[in-house]
Write a structure and sequence with these properties.
The chain folds into two domains: 15-107, Fumarase/aspartase (N-terminal domain) (Fumarase C, Chain B, domain 1, Orthogonal Bundle); 112-146 and 166-205 and 225-358, Fumarase/aspartase (Central domain) (Fumarase C, Chain A, domain 2). It has 18 helices and eight strands. Helix 7 (111-145) runs antiparallel to helix 18 (419-427) and helix 8 runs antiparallel to helix 11 (235-261). A hairpin with a 2-residue loop joins strand 1 (151-156) and strand 2 (159-165). The protein has 431 residues and is mostly helical. Helix content is 59%, strand content 6%.
């Protein structure tokens, strides 16, 4: 490993302690590396604006930062155990190529605001992906909800309850993922604040051009307080994981439905073959492994959020504990986004088994219709309820699932799905 940036003369470095301190940073920082380079370029421009580096030095530094980014993307430069982290690697490269100009690049900043800004840029990118996936899921659900509705048993307590439909099922998840898309955007607006220039949490005795770095890096605003910049580390990461977690909770419910609906006992749904796997011992099996892992993926997101929350039992100011938050956000964000990316195609291509669904609709499932019709005719609802309960076994006489759905005229129900309203709300995300 190269000499640590913080190394003082006369102090012996213990290799075991250094390995513990570095942890997995050099591997995890590969995710942040290009963002750290982008932030370094903006910082160099800001230093040039206040005369800390000359125009020629700034041009050379930016040229070398671009070259380092290209080398990283091509594999010519590898961030590995030679370095403590991405920050030390960038500074070492600049110093190697440019000497004193490279040594000046760290003027006015700390590794604390370096990792804050690189993480913030990375999180914004991931929230854009989250919004994209949620919008894609909602769009597919709306398209399938607009197709001719097939009667589907509606369940409460996992017991057959009333007549529902495939259109109602898709519309329900469409609205949920529209909410999730708006939440992703709102979270992005929350965290869209530039922490670069807050240094180690108390500012520096230089009039840094923070307005320039804010604009250059595409932030909506500057994070003003250096102390809050440190306090927001972990808090903002939790907000991102909560936004992903909300989408994954809906995904878990959806996956649970499909897990049940694909069993032989239900036989309501056939999955595309690409979303199933075979058994290693039972030749007759096709297992819904993708659906099961979609169901499981919320756990990774929730665990990551919990780990960060536990790290935040801290006083104000930077504490090294927060280093461990990197692994948490990578783990949680990666699992969540990988899962969500698969959902639109899965929903677009699953097939309903209309015969099995119709066969599962039993006469008692019309009892609620009977009770409400009598109540609408003037019978006190509790009297109508008891009469319908007593005659539940014959409630379906002369009725069809289509008629039940057609009579469900409350807004959003079987006859009045309000898909145009949902389309309009989804479209507001384009504005």
């Amino acid at each position: 490993m190269t000499q640590p940036l913080w190394q003082k003369s006369g102090i012996q470095i213990d290799a075991k302690i250094m390995r513990f301190l570095a942890g997995d940073d050099v591997i995890l920082d590969r995710e942040f590396f290009l963002h750290d380079i982008a932030a370094s370029k903006a910082h160099v421009e800001g230093l040039a604006n206040i005369g800390v580096v000359s125009a020629d030095e700034a041009a050379a530094l930016k040229r070398e930062l671009d070259a380092l980014a290209d080398d990283f993307k091509s594999g010519a430069f590898v961030l590995d155990e030679r370095y403590e982290d991405c920050h030390s690697a960038i500074e070492a490269r600049l110093t190697e190529r440019l000497g004193d100009a490279g040594r000046r690049v760290h003027t006015g900043r700390s590794r604390n605001d370096q990792i804050l800004v690189a993480t913030r840029l990375w999180l914004k990118e991931k929230l854009e992906a989250l919004e994209t996936h949620c919008r894609a899921i909602a769009q597919v659900c709306l398209e399938r909800a607009a197709q001719p509705a097939i009667p589907l048993p509606g369940y409460t307590h996992l017991q057959r309850a009333v007549v529902s439909s495939t259109a109602m099922w898709f519309a329900g998840f469409a609205e949920g993922f529209i909410d999730n898309a708006f939440r992703a955007r709102g979270t992005r607006e929350l965290i869209d604040a530039n922490p670069l220039g807050t240094a180690a949490g108390y500012g520096v005795n230089l009039k840094l051009d923070r307005e320039h770095t804010t604009a250059a890096l595409g932030f909506m605003r500057m994070q003003v307080s250096p102390i809050y910049a440190q306090l927001s580390r972990g808090k903002y990461e939790m907000a991102v994981l909560e936004a992903i977690g909300a989408a994954m909770l809906d995904t878990r419910r959806l996956a649970w439905d499909l897990s049940l609906f694909t069993t032989a006992e239900f036989d309501f749904v056939k999955l595309p073959s690409q979303y199933t796997t075979g058994s290693s011992i039972m030749p007759n099996k096709r297992n819904p492994d993708v659906v099961e892992l979609l169901r499981a993926s919320y756990a990774s997101v929730a665990a990551a959020r919990t780990e960060i929350e536990q790290l935040l039992s801290l006083p104000s100011g930077y504490q090294r504990d927060l280093q461990f938050s990197k692994g948490s956000i990578f783990h949680g964000v990666r699992h969540g986004l990988m899962a969500l990316e698969l959902v639109p195609d899965l929903l677009a291509r699953l097939e309903w088994n209309e015969g099995a669904m119709r066969a599962a609709i039993e006469p008692a499932m019309y009892a609620t219709d009977v009770a409400i019709e009598q109540a609408a005719a003037g019978v006190p609802f509790r009297d109508a309820y008891r009469a319908a309960a007593d005659a539940a076994a014959s409630a379906g006489q002369g009725r069809s699932p289509e008629a039940s759905l057609a009579q469900r005229v409350s807004p959003g129900a079987g006859h009045d799905l309000r898909l145009q309203e949902l389309h309009a709300r989804l479209g507001r995300l384009d504005v």
